[in-house]
Amino acid sequence: MRAEPDGPEDRLRRFATIWSRAVFPATSTSSTRIEFEEQLLPLARRLSEVLRARTFDAPEARAVGGALVDAHCTDPEALSRTLDCVDAYLVLYCGDDGDPEDLRARSARLQHAMAAGFAGALRARTLAEQEAIAQAALKAQGVVAEALHASEARFRAVFEGAAIGIGIADLDGNVLQVNEALMRMFGVADPMLGGRRATEWTHPEDAPQTWRLYDELVRGEREHYHVEKAFYRPDGTVLWTNLTVSLLRDADGVPQYQLALMEDTTERRLLNLRLRYEATHDALTGLPNRSFFFERLEKALGAGPEQRFGLCYLDLDGFKAVNDSLGHAAGDRLLVEVADRLQACATAPGEMVARLGGDEFVALTTGRDTRREVDELAGRIMNALLAPVSVEGRELTVRGSIGIVEGAAGERSPAEVLRSADITMYRAKSAGGNRFELADPEADARVITRHGLTTGLPAALDRGEFFIEYQPLVHLGDGTVSGAEALVRWLHPQHGVLGPDRFIPLAEHTGLIVPLGRWVLEQSVRQARLWRERYGESTAAGPMRINVNLSPCQLTHPGLVQDTVDILERTGVAPDALCLEVTESALIGADDDLLKPLRRLAEMGVDIALDDFGTGYSNLANLRRLPVSVLKLDRSFTQSMQQYPADPVDLKIVEGIVALAHSLDLTVTVEGVETGAQAEQLRVLGCDTAQGWYYARPGPPDRLHELALVDATG
Length: 714
What we know:
Protein name: Cyclic Di-GMP phosphodiesterase RmdA
Domain PAS: 151-221
Shape: elongated
Domain PAC: 225-277
């Protein structure tokens, strides 16, 4: 077993030692290897701090890359060896006990930042040297002009000793002489460069203004110009240069020659291209990444009004299961195979595929008829995913959901297009997956509204935007008000009053249902206390009671019992004033652990009502084991009773349920009573209480006061 260094400082020094040994042969320094290691040690410490920082410090990582140039590590090989060393050993020796996946990701970002810092510092250093050379060259212009008339020897010393390429040509472009540095750059031994003229050195990537500036200079209309220019060497390779061309005049000011100064920037350009590629392409799949895709999408959306675009947003179905069961390495191999297949689907002009991250990919097509093309592209993608992918000897079935957005350029921003595609993709996934869906503006609007409501829920509770309406519970025997059901509402600043069906599912999804439910419970119990203070401890039908709904999330929350007890004690209300309603579907198949809090509340005297009874297909025998005292019969059983005569089948069903409930000492409450005939029929069938628009719509608590007052006065 290999012995590891003991402490963090030992590990840090070990990393610095490995780094110095890897880079020292590629440096231009007079220091010894040990001295060079001491120079790298503080840089290693800075890298370690960036790796383990709470937030990633990209400027610090770039600064370390720049510091390499200050340490004379200017050879691109030194950067390559540094990045290899950081990739292989930084997490190992400086990662401590952090999450390996997160540290590897941070290490990759750190390497990109170091490379950018190195390139920036190297460029700054080169520009400084170039400026010094240019100044010397400009100064040498006078020397050259004077040498042409006085001292050829003095000019020759400057010409031959320069480290950059220098060439002299006449105003017709005929090369008269070049120095050794320029011949080395072109890889030739001919001082005349084969008798070629300057105008022959064209290249496809010449900037549009290059030859315009040249013509102005030889006509004497400008003194010099500076451009980046490529040249073909005799062997066919490309030489990239920073080119400065100056006009030389005689003693009378008449143009005589042109002087070219060339700095070889080929290696630096290749490094910049490599860094650009790494910054715009996904490291795993080689596909364009999110930033590159946004550039292309923005360009496509900024095209003329006659242009259109089509976008396919793909998310793999069940990819998380692959990572969880086979590991991230297998998941990565699956993503690489999917990327290769997608790349093969988008080969036509105007098409591209990119990876946005994780298992999300996008395909873009542009042109004049993208309505047809984007459908065909989506079809090719779905067909490409049909064949299983072999990973670690397993044949994995690949499925994907695609959201398609198509439209005219200039109508939407890139962010809006991606949002619509993302929403549409999730619509395809919700419909079962392995399919594609077309974007629907109305569906998008509903999702956006839903998202806005979701994000606004916490602040709405803090701002007091929720209020409660109460719907009376009426005793069918004598028509007296025995209590009310509390129904929460949201007074939204933009959408007005929203019913619970609009926001309760969102509150359950986000977990806000627990504090919201606690607030509703406390406000409702306080209202029950006010009613009892006003009407006494009982009415003709018994104690005035408040019914409060419990969501499945509240039912499983560990603080349910204690919260209820605290609220009852704090408000001074007896438990028999409270009835908690739980939907039948929430209790289907419930085990003893789930029923335990309800049993404790029931033992305290709190009534438990089984809401929406008859919709959950529960076994009626289960009623005996549930701690409920009230059945709330779903309105679907009694709707036919709104007209006379009622459906005899429904009458038999309700009669049987009422008989069963009463045999179990349960009272029966009916929801959705809307006509007098319906109320009378339910009374005859033996139902105990009812609620519905026939008696009153949900309203403020004073409305219940009025109804109760009518009952009290007859």
